Amino acid sequence: MKFSTLLATLVLSAAAQAATFTVEKTATGGAVVKIDGDFFTELVVDQANKTYLWPIIGAGGVTMTRAYPMKTVEGEQHDHPHHRGLCFGHENIGGYDTWAEAATFPAGSKNADRIKHLGAIKLREITEMKGGETAVLVTVSDYLEAEGKKTCEEVRKYTFAVKGDTRVIDVDIDLIATEGDTLVDDKKDAGLSIRVPTEMAVEIEKNKKGTGHILNSEGHTDADAWAKRASWCDYYGTVGGQQVGVAMLNHPSSFRFPTPWHVRTYGLFTANPFGTKSLDPKADTGAYTLKKGEKTTLRHRFIFHKGDAKDAKIAEAFAEYAKEK
User: Fold this and answer.
1) Residue 97 half-sphere exposure, CB side, CA atoms within 13 Å?
2) Rounded to the nearest 5 degrees, what angle is found at the Cα of 322, between the Cα atoms of 183 and 256?
3) Which of 14, 28, 225, 252 is the most exposed place for a label (fewest CB within 10 A)?
4) How many CB atoms lie within 10 A of CB 295?
């Protein structure tokens, strides 16, 4: 066989093996993303005071998000009902809280007063939805106060891809002060999050270990990774007998890179560039005012991988991501 023929055959073979994404709108106004006809994730828009991706099927077909509170599964942790799949929230933008939700504060809760300040991130429209070798989903959402008045706006772009045996979701968020000057407060409970499966937590509950570990780009591990700044952080463990993980990378162009990580041993995994003093009492406050017409841009990449951070070459993956414009 001639080299040119062999090369053409290899190219065609690679093309045949390339993943094909489809994106379909749901009856509720969200969207379902599929890879080669198989479910990858859903954008859920009608079940909480914010939008979120859930469930997310990662490398090896493993579900990489806790089911609660969307489903009650025996053996799972049933804490923090506002930790929904992959989502963004903030305790105080423009005076209102999109991190928590009503279910966060049961009757008699010491923090019940926070219910008065609960806001919402309400999907207005999906402006782009396309599949192919990658999938793209662009949403425009309004941030609303308790009475429904708009306080600011968000444009969020999801890009879905397959790279080797990993699955990738890029999440780019622009927070835009459309309605006037907007306070973005320094809060511990803020940022882009994913709640990992219970089995993969470092510690499922006090004195009960899970299979998981946390590692960041600076070498901090498990509980020591909390509140530390790093360019990436990886949460990995065993789920259903498979060693898998999810890494979150923080792009150098993202707001306050490298971000502090509000990553908890019980399974919360959040990149929080807004909480400086709330995460480190020695730091200056991170509160700031977004002037009318200005925006804050957040850029992150989620890599759903097999093995641990070393196996998945997360440091190398970050170096590649950092070069992207």
Assistant:
1) 19
2) 20
3) 14
4) 17
Distances (CA, A) of 209 to 156, 225, 238, 323: 36, 17, 12, 38
Tokens standing for residue 177: 């002060």
C-alpha span between 13 and 31 (Å, rounded): 31
Q: Minimal CA–CA distance to 251: which of 303, 312, 287, 311?
A: 303
Give pLDDT < 50 ranges for the chain: 1, 3-16
The predicted pLDDT at position 133 comes to 97
Does CATH place domain 16-323 in 2.70.98? yes
Write the single-letter amino acid at 137: L
Identify whether the C-beta of residue 41 lies closer than 8 Å to the C-beta of residue 167.
Answer: no
What's the pTM value of the predicted model, to 2 decimals?
Answer: 0.94
Q: Write 217-225 long-range contacts (CB < 8 A, 24+).
A: 217/258, 217/315, 217/318, 222/265, 223/265, 225/261, 225/263
Residue position matching structure tokens 């306070």: 183
